[in-house]
Amino acid sequence: AGNDGNGASQLASLRLRLASREPEAAEEASYVLLVTFTVLLANLIGESLTRRLLEPVWAPPSANTEEMSEP
Fold first, then answer.
1. Contact between 21 and 29 (Cβ < 8 Å)
2. For 15, which of 22, 24, 29, 42 is 20 to 30 Å away at the CA?
3. Pick from 61, 41, 63: which is nearest to 51 by CA?
4. In the predicted model, is pLDDT for residue 4 greater than 70?
5. Whether 18 contacts 30, CB under 8 Å
6. Within its chain, how far is the Cα of 71 from the centroid?
7. Distance, CA of 35 to CA of 32 (rounded, Å)
8. Which pairs count as long-range contacts for 30-38, CB under 8 Å and 24+ apart, including other chains?
9. pLDDT (tens digit, 9 = 90+) per residue, 21-51?
């Protein structure tokens, strides 16, 4: 109900819309979207499970990754 297209096309559309914005506005929108998603997920499945599911993608980059990205 109310879904237009599939998830991949919706993400592509979001990416294009964010790319057309000023960087600060795109960053703020991305932050709000992530926070909203996280709160909704926690309300649906609980904070503990949400934390366990999202923790791997929230982990800060390792020192090796940072060293490799520096010129």
1. yes
2. 42
3. 41
4. no
5. yes
6. 27
7. 5
8. none
9. 999 999 999 999 999 999 999 999 999 999 9
